[in-house]
Amino acid sequence: MLEKILAISGKPGLYKLISGSKRMVVVESLIDGKRIPAYTTDRVISLSDIAMYTEETEVPLNEVFMNIQKIYGENPIEVDYKKASEKELHDFMAKALPEYDRDRVHNSDIKKLIQWYNLLLKNNLTDFALEEEEKSEENM
Question: Which domains does the chain have, with CATH numbers?
């Protein structure tokens, strides 16, 4: 599911991939449902390609989302990312990913993580397992 959810630099929120061509993709905003084109000049990245820094390595975003889901279940994260203090943000992150790198994970990264998780939850996009993982589980 995360392979088709995109973040676009300079644009708020997340977008669902609708279709694509050589020079652009059509995306739908998860905030308001409006469809817009994203061109090759836009910096577009799939959530499945994003990872969070830890002390040892990087943890894929889907694993961080699954950790959050274990803590909160089907409830949104109660931390208000717009008004939260630095301590509240780092306390939340310590629960979600205890080994996160406190020097390389910035407050803005944590705020974005909270916003994205709540947005995915609001749109019932809560299957955070990657397709490769799902296929390997089916083969077992």
Answer: 2-47 (2.30.30.730), 50-131 (1.10.10.1650)
Name the nearest CA neighbour of 116 among 15, 43, 9.
15
The answer to whether the beta carbons of residues 96 and 64 sit under 8 Å apart is yes
pTM of the model: 0.87
Per-residue model confidence as pLDDT tens for the chain (140 residues): 789 999 999 999 999 999 988 899 999 999 999 999 999 899 999 999 999 999 999 999 999 999 999 999 989 999 999 999 999 999 999 999 999 999 999 999 999 999 999 999 999 999 988 665 444 444 44
